[in-house]
Design brief:
Helices cover about 35% and strands about 25% of the residues. The protein has about 150 residues and is α+β, with helices and mostly antiparallel strands.
């Protein structure tokens, strides 16, 4: 085993395998190396590598967790085609958050309203509400809705 490699996880099957390695770099920092090995029809292999530097890992983790939790939520609802559904239109979509909106969001959250209820009040989608609550340190992406 590579002396710099700390952890290896293998995920895969017959035609596609992923390796996820945590490595310590020469400067002492850590990086995550994700490798996909995919078998071509002619029997040869394609290799795709992704390297995440230590400072990129938290944002990658948050984004991946967010997507996985969303997928899990949709699958539990039996909605396997949720990506094809039309999106609701919210008037504040893509607008920056104002300090007043942050105060309103914090207050609505403290009233134990769900992200869906807050979204309707604030004219933003549920994912935007959840993301902002996470940024404010009030919840995590996988917190159960109240």
């Amino acid at each position: 085993m590579d002396p710099q490699r700390k952890v290896t996880s293998r995920i895969g099957g017959a035609n596609r395998t992923f390796f996820i390695d945590l490595k310590q770099d020469p400067d002492g920092s850590h990086s995550i190396h994700i490798t996909e090995n995919k078998r071509r029809r002619n029997g040869s292999w394609d290799h795709v590598h992704i390297v995440l530097c230590q400072d990129e890992i938290p944002a990658f983790h948050d984004a991946l967790t967010k997507v996985c939790c969303l997928l899990n939520e949709k699958m539990q609802l039996g909605n396997t085609h949720f990506l094809q559904q039309p999106q609701e239109v919210f008037t504040n979509t893509y607008k920056p958050w104002s300090p007043e909106e942050d105060i309103q969001l914090r207050e609505l959250f403290r009233q134990n309203l769900s992200s869906r209820q807050i979204a309707a009040i604030m004219h933003r989608n549920k994912v935007a509400i959840t993301s902002r609550l996470v940024q404010m340190g009030l919840k995590t992406y996988c917190d159960q809705e109240n």
